[in-house]
Amino acid sequence: MSYRLPAPETQPPYDAPDYGSTHKRHPKQPLIRIAQTLSETSAPRMRPSLYETTHNLAKGPGWEAQGERITVAGRVLDEDGRPVPGAMVEVWQANAAGRYNHERDQHDAPLDPNFKGEGRIFTDAEGWYRYTTIRPGAYPWRNHHNAWRPVHIHYSLFGAGFAQRLITQMYFPGDPLLPLDPIFNCVPDPAARQRLVAAFDLEVTEPEYALGYRFDIVLRGRDATPMENPA
Amino acid sequence: MSLASDDRSAEGRGGLNRPPLQATASQTAGPYWHLIDFPEWADLLRSNGPNAAIAGERITLLGTVTDGDGAPCPDAMVEIWQADPEGRYDGDFHGFGRCATDQAGRFRFLTLKPGAVRAEGNAFQAPHVVVSLFARGLLKQLVTRLYFAGEPLNEQDPVLSAVPPDRRGTLIARPEGDGAWRLDMRLQGEGEMVFLEI
């Protein structure tokens, strides 16, 4: 068993001229293709007993974050549509004012002492995950003049094989900053970009409590045929 | 995004070799990923952790991550995944670690030395650690491996053999005494590390 390579146009390149931080950090030598071994097809068994879960980033005992409360739910599947159960999903984000609870974030926007901006959930047997947070704010960055990141939540996922490891970002529908963002637009295929945008979902929305968004994530699928020229 | 179930039909595949769904695009971890940094994860042998009772050769894996100018990358996430001292992934050993590089671009893991891992047929891979790098400026992770200098199996390891001999050294950690092994990782330029497409 091995994991199929994603279609190239669905993934960003290492060298992306419009995203300044890639200039000195992308390898100039081509990657060396290897045949996957147990080291790539196995993965750490992440489980709640080892990694504590946080389903609500917006509220805890005696505190509640400022901002528009939202619930995000979705499924983690592989490319063949099979649910990925027990996948560890880490999320992190800026606060409602567009500032991270991080010492290196010097954006002049208020910090919220009640918002850490980090959570961890596991998918259930059908691949579903769900958490509640506040809608993050947009924030400026110094990539180019008047550069602003669209509203987003960072995601980190562990699947059943280390080759499925994924870090990505979830964006919000209708954000006017999306067409201007070099990071979002580094993904060549427009349809693949659009799949990074969550959908407003009335079924996820909790009455009198939180607006709901749906965001499904697809991890690499299994390849039925062995590689032609394995290393 | 919500994936409509009809997208999974054969017609939605856009060709016979296309899977029904497409893997989600990767995006950079950015400079603020430390919100999910738990420094104790770099110590796989932590007393309250899953490996506290597992025996083996205790080692330190350390090095730096530097960019095309040779300047330190002070905001990289280094993740490791490795087999247990018997070379197995299905035992009790939890071979996962994460470490944030410091201002000098340094990372440091405490772990047990992995054993040789089974390869195709009756062959074995040399002891190694899978390494993933995430960072601002990396739109997707860079994947590589750390091998140990002096291992006889290095000579016939299938992955090392796929690397041109003059670049193999970028994957081989050197002993520094007291169980420490150093592997410096240059992302670009002179001595650029070999990265793998897996």
UniProtKB/TrEMBL annotation, chain A:
Intradiol ring-cleavage dioxygenases domain segment(s): 72-100
EC numbers on record: 1.13.11.3
Keyword Oxidoreductase assigned: yes
Highest taxon in the source lineage: Bacteria
A GO term for molecular function: protocatechuate 3,4-dioxygenase activity
Location of the region described as Disordered in the Swiss-Prot/TrEMBL record: 1-28
SUPFAM superfamilies: Aromatic compound dioxygenase
Entry keyword set: Dioxygenase, Oxidoreductase
Broad enzyme group: oxidoreductase
Entries under InterPro entries matching the protein: Intradiol_dOase_C, Intradiol_dOase_core, Intradiol_RC_Dioxygenase, PCDO_beta_N, Protocat_dOase_b
Pfam families with a match to the protein in the record: Dioxygenase_C (PF00775), PCDO_beta_N (PF12391)
Family in the record: Belongs to the intradiol ring-cleavage dioxygenase family.
Record-linked NCBIfam families: protocat_beta
Protein name as it appears in the record: Protocatechuate 3,4-dioxygenase subunit beta
Organism: Belnapia mucosa
Taxonomic lineage of the native organism: Bacteria, Pseudomonadati, Pseudomonadota, Alphaproteobacteria, Acetobacterales
